[in-house]
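Q: Convert this sequence to structure tokens.
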Amino acid sequence: MITLQSEITAIRDQIATADLQRQATGGRIDAAWFHRARTALRHKQERLARFKEHIRSLPGDRQERKQRLKDAIIEVLRADYDDDEWRQVLDEAHDILEGKVA
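A:
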């Protein structure tokens, strides 16, 4: 991921440098080069996005583990409460989430 991010930054820097040179000299950017650079940038950004999505989908993903733990805690605790008591627990949790309880 770091390599892809570095490559994306390098391509952006090359495009920016070419644009600055164009502005300074009043010339033009080579259209074929610019097209190749933008295409390479787009492909690397797509690869990075796919890689990040793949990482998020892995079962060992930290966020997913955290959510599964929360679900397991709820499952364990829910058995100890009747419907009215559980509603009170949920109401209190919502109040905490909304900052209504200190």
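The chain is about 80% helix and 0% strand.
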